[in-house]
Design goal:
The structure holds two protein chains of two kinds.
Chain A: H1 4-23, H2 35-40, H3 47-58, H4 61-74, H5 81-106, H6 111-119, H7 122-153, H8 160-176, H9 179-207, H10 209-215, H11 219-222, H12 233-249, H13 253-260, H14 265-274, H15 276-295, H16 304-310, H17 315-323, H18 326-364, H19 369-393, H20 396-410, H21 414-417, H22 428-448, E1 455-460, E2 463-468, H23 469-491
Antiparallel strand pairs in A: 1-2
Chain B: H1 7-14, H2 16-19, H3 31-57
Classes of the chains: A mainly alpha, B mainly alpha.
């Protein structure tokens, strides 16, 4: 089916933000020949811009499609997104103003750069840099998948629309750097708020109210299953998934870039209290999955092809097309499509910062500023092109599985980055060994789960404790790093290589 | 020491056995859903209080 009004509105919105993206380069005195300006917006973003930028960065198109899809398919378990996005903010408040201060003083653009300064250990910093880039790649790819779902729902044929959208994305990322997604995120977030607020007022009314909607959800999906005897069952799975995902989130390069582009630590602390507004939106969005169940879109003939191609991910687009006039569905789809462009741009920029500062830099030596910025811009284009090829050549299910693994891998950088903000007890080599054990054990357990489930039933003191694999393996990682630091500090002490000063951590 | 006010956020958000129930309902929402949606502003409020308390001590 073709939806002309929805298609036109959606395209107009995308064209508008692309124009904004190109214009953004001249905003706030940007000199794009410096990587700090291109890749970090010159660390100039105040409270409101940071709020929009981080909102656009952390709550992505993929989230907007995948979380309701999880509710649609699995039910209550998908609601873990709410506690997840509640418990991230104390971490943001406590930890990241510290990192901002150190990074600002020493001119660091990335997490691995901080670790290299702190430990003088190039192998450890390289491991963390590569982890960041590898974890980011499938994440960008999934943003494309989110956009693809929208394009498919509009009935546009072939891959051309997707390729064009991301070619333009690469172009404005090249010319404007982080200022482009910062400016675009304002439009994106306003559209998302509009869409969600209208959706949660209009659609439940069509369904006869929230009570009637919840009544149509099968009881087994409405709540988590009660745990069997001797097991913590779905309870520990749900809680560890929320906590582990929260610990991983800010270690992703794109989150770090968003945070370090703030103009002061105070901006970050204030945003920790303001960003939860997006979590409310995410919780309401999750309920769209239930609305799709209650509206019965799955059995409507006009959506059969969409569900066949995209699976449960098609539930939100189908619901929007079913419940709204074409033009408003176009607004909503525009919001989701732009919601893919913003994080994809930030992810490409973040990966490029890491490549330039932490992979190319240490090998090529210090570059003149212009060449350093050029290298970063070219690598950002490479990331976007690679993500497009990824999506066109490899089945979507692989991207989802790699994203699942990406979360397991990125959390393994937690001890090296976060603990190091509080103590210099650890030895760089011990952190590297802990990281390696974490990566291998997490990958191993996910492989035993056939790459579909993130939860593993651990056995602890006679109890079965199903837990998010990332959380369990980063615990192992931290224990190994701690235990090995004692002997390694005795035989190979590396504290003298710390380029930062103890006083900076107070 | 205002930072200790952040601790309850983890308790209220992760107390799964406590909130995995459907009664009492609110505006047609089962407890599981309205409770968790309510933890969001509750958490934000606690962070805001800590922010205000710490901000008074030091302007940065």
């Amino acid at each position: 089916m073709i939806y002309p009004a929805a298609t036109i509105i959606c395209l107009v919105l995308i064209a508008f933000v692309v124009g904004l993206g190109f214009a953004a380069g001249r905003w706030k005195g940007g000199d794009m020949s410096k990587i700090e300006e291109w890749g970090l917006g010159g660390r100039k973003f105040g409270t409101w811009i940071s709020w929009f930028l981080l909102g656009g960065d952390l709550y992505t198109a993929y989230t907007f499609i995948a979380i309701p899809a999880l509710m649609f398919g699995a039910g209550a378990a998908g609601f873990f997104a709410v506690p997840y996005t509640v418990v991230i903010y104390p971490i943001l408040y406590l930890v990241f103003p510290k990192l901002w201060r150190i990074a600002n003083r020493h001119g660091y653009l990335t997490g691995p750069e901080f670790v290299r300064g702190r430990y003088g250990n190039h192998a450890l910093a390289l491991a963390i840099a590569v982890t960041g880039i590898v974890a980011t790649m499938p994440y960008i790819a999934l943003q494309l998948v989110g956009m693809q779902t929208v394009i498919g729902a509009l009935g546009l044929p072939g891959h051309a629309p997707l390729v064009i959208a991301f070619a333009v994305l690469a172009a404005f990322t090249y010319t404007s750097g982080l200022r482009a997604p910062a400016m675009i995120s304002i439009v994106k977030d306003l559209l998302i708020y509009l869409t969600v607020i209208v959706a949660v007022i209009v659609i439940p009314a069509q369904l006869g109210g929230f009570g009637a909607m919840f009544a149509k959800i099968p009881p087994a999906k409405l709540l988590l299953a009660a745990p069997p005897a001797g097991s913590t069952g779905a309870y520990s799975g749900y809680a560890t998934l929320a906590l582990g995902s929260a610990m991983a989130l800010f270690l992703y390069p794109h989150s770090m870039t968003g945070i370090l582009s703030a103009s002061s630590p105070r901006v970050i602390r204030r945003n920790a209290a303001m960003l939860p507004a997006y979590s409310i939106i995410l919780g309401l969005l999750a309920l769209l999955g239930f609305m799709a169940v209650a509206a019965g879109v799955k059995t409507m003939p006009q959506f059969a092809a969409g569900f066949k191609q995209f699976g449960a991910s098609f539930s939100v687009p189908a619901l929007l097309l079913n419940s709204f006039p074409g033009w408003f569905a176009g607004v909503a789809f525009g919001a989701i499509a732009i919601g893919a462009l913003v994080p994809a741009a930030i992810m490409a920029i973040a990966a490029a910062n890491i490549f330039t500062r932490d992979i190319a830099g240490p090998f090529l030596g210090t570059q003149p500023p212009g060449r350093e910025a050029l290298l970063a811009k070219l690598f950002a284009i490479f990331m976007v092109v690679a993500a497009v090829l990824f999506v066109l050549k490899i089945p979507v299910s692989y991207a989802v599985q790699l994203q699942l693994l990406g979360g397991m891998w990125i959390i393994q950088t937690f001890p090296a980055i976060i603990f190091s903000l509080y103590t210099r007890f650890f030895n760089g080599w011990a952190l590297l060994i802990g990281w390696a054990v974490g990566i291998v054990s997490a990958t191993w357990l996910v492989a035993l789960n056939h790459f579909v489930s993130a939860v593993w039933p651990f056995h602890v003191f006679g109890w079965t404790v199903p837990s998010y694999i990332a959380l369990a393996t980063v615990l192992l990682n931290a224990i190994i790093a701690t235990v090995l630091s004692v002997p390694l500090n005795a035989v190979a002490p590396d504290r003298v290589r710390d380029k930062t000063a103890a006083a900076e951590y107070v | 020491m205002a930072k200790f006010l952040l601790l309850p956020i983890y308790v209220i958000a992760l107390a799964v056995p406590f909130f995995n129930r459907d009664q009492p309902e609110l505006f047609g929402f089962p407890f599981f859903y309205w409770y968790q949606l309510l933890t969001v502003p509750a958490g934000a409020l606690l962070i805001f209080i800590v922010f205000k308390l710490e901000d008074k001590g030091q302007g940065e």
